[in-house]
Structure formats: structure tokens, C-alpha cells
Request: fold
Amino acid sequence: MDLQKIIPYKKMSLKELLVPENKLMALIAVVLTTLFLIGVAIYLVHGHHAYAVTREHPWGLLIAMYIFFVVSSTGLCIVGSFGDVFGFKDYMVVSKRAIFGSIITILSGFAVIAFEIGHPVTMMIYNVLSPGLTSAIWWMGTLYGLYLTFMIIEFIFLMRNDMARAKIFGLIGLLVGLAAHSNLGGVFGFLNARVVSNGVFYPTYFILTAFITGIYLIFIMYGYKYRGQPFPDDVAKALTNFMKIQGLLLAILMFFETWKMLTGVYGGMPERADTIIHILHTKSFWLGEVLCGMVIPFLLILKSKGTAIKQMVWASVIGMVGIFYMRYDLVHDTQLFPMQTLKIREYQLPPSFVDYFPSTAEMMIGFGAIGICMILYFIGTKLFDLDHMPEHH
Reply:
């Protein structure tokens, strides 16, 4: 089988493939991947005891990092679809790179979640043999598997410059991806026992933050590619347009967040108001989510009127830090309030908010997966021509 006929790639020796363009970034990627492997080894030896999760706080950093990666994937899919699916010529230049990014980010997310699930192989078998059609988590896994398949097929047709088929599979992949991602928000929205998360907010919030994350990442990708040199005109035009879209999306997100907090505290409803007030007293919310994730990039866009694309690259790096805090706080804050609020034995302290801090193994696996994503990206940029796109007909 000639792989070149299936997906065109640049032929090169293994040595050429592994020689890094940027030694510092290569070193960071290797160190992070090594930490990931060490974390996996610790997990394989000690099992879930290697994690800081408890019965009171069963979802930890690995769930947050999984959401972080799949949010990134869906966002890049949306960004890439502007050109090859919807046919906007100004955005065609970013389509290949964005779709490739969507593939590697969801693979990195799967790498993380594989070591959070107790038996991932058994899960895949019984996911088919005994589907839980009423389970949001079953739909999430199934839809994301289909989404990855369609993204790979779309990327193959993009590399073959078969735009007609790429558009078909790209549209199917986009719709499945949006369904999967909204369903992931539904996993939290369906939590009737956790009133701070229960409701329709998260299924829509996840789609909005995915689009925002995708734009942050496309700026980082092109900022790295054209570091120390001016952007080509077609890339600069696409990024300028995305920067203006990002300003609108961030404004909507701040509007969403404001009303979520106001409705949460209004009326002083037990548990929900207590949890929201606790969140509003945390540094991770104000410094991480609000300042890094929304305010700094938004102010830059307003000040420059959406034209400072070089500065937006750095604002996007800060924004991605904020996106991480959004994902981490989402998981942690959902589980903050104790389910057992009464004393059940003598001399017991009154139950309070549940504490959680990730273990070393969790941090190694969670953050180490960023190294896997970086290595896949660097290899992909060498193997594939991710820049040139044919005219869209």
C-alpha cells in the first residue's frame, strides 16, 4: 500500500524528521512527554491511589485536562470550517493547520482520559456491546470517536486538495463535533445533585468557549510559525478577521458569566448561592478565568480595534492560561459543596467545602499531555504542507 497515494506527505529520513527547528520548544516538549510517561508509570503501579481524588471529589485534574483538550479540538474544528466547509476564501489559508490541530488535540485528550478511566479497553468493548443510550457520558465518548474519524477523513481530502469531499466530511465532522461538545456540557448540566452546574448553561457555554479557544490557538500556531518575521498578507487578513470575531465572543462570554453569577447568588438559595459566593472569593476565578481568559485579550482587541495581531499572539497565550482555569474551576467548583451536610457521628467537625489539590502523578499526566500535543504538531508541520490551499469552487 502506497501511503503517499492516500495522504500526500513530504518524504524525509527519520533523522530529518526528528531534528528540531527550535531546540528550546523541542526540549520543553520532550520534558513534558517524559513527565507524562513517568506519571503513567506511577499510575500503573499504584492505580487510582496515585491520584488525589476521593469519594467526595471523584473528578480531578485529568478530567479538567481532558475537557481542556477536547474544547481546543472543537474550537479548531470551528475555525478550520470557515474556509473549507463554508467557503469563506479569506479563511482558507488556516483550514489545513486548524483541522490538523483539531486532530492532535483530541488525541492528546484521549491520552489523558485513558488513564482516568479504570479499564479503557473494556470500556471500548462494552461501549459497543452494551451501549448506555440514556447516558450522557456514553454519547460523549461515542460522538467524539465519530468526530475524530470524520476529522481524519476531512484532513486526508484536504491534503489531496479534494475540496468537494473535504467539505462533505468537514460539515459532518463539524456537526458531530458540536453535538459531542454540547453533550459534554450536558454531562454537567444533567447533574441534578449539583445545582451550581445543573441546567442549560453549560451545553451552550461549552460551544462558545470552544470557539474562543480555537481562535486563541490559531493565533499561537501562526505566531510560532512566523516568529520574528511579518505575517503574509493572506494570513494577516484571516487573523485580523478572527481577532474581531474574538472580541465579540469574549463580550458574549463576559455577559454569560455575569448573569450566571447574578442568578446564582440571587435569593440566597442554599448550596447554589453558597457555592457561587465561595467561587467569587477565589483568586483562580478572578485572576485566571476573568483577567487572563477574558479581560486582557478583550482590552487588547478594543485598544487596537482588532489590528494588533502580533500582540494578540501573546494575549492568546495568556488567554489559554485562562482557558485552563475555566476548565479546572468548572470541574472543581461543581464538586465544592459537600453532599453530606449533617454530622453523622459525635465530635465530628461540621462538613465544609470539599478540598482538592492534584497529586504529582495527576500533574505529570495532565500537563505532560501538552508535550505529546507539541510533538505531534512539530512532526505534522514537517510531514504535511499545512499552508497552501487551492481555490474553493
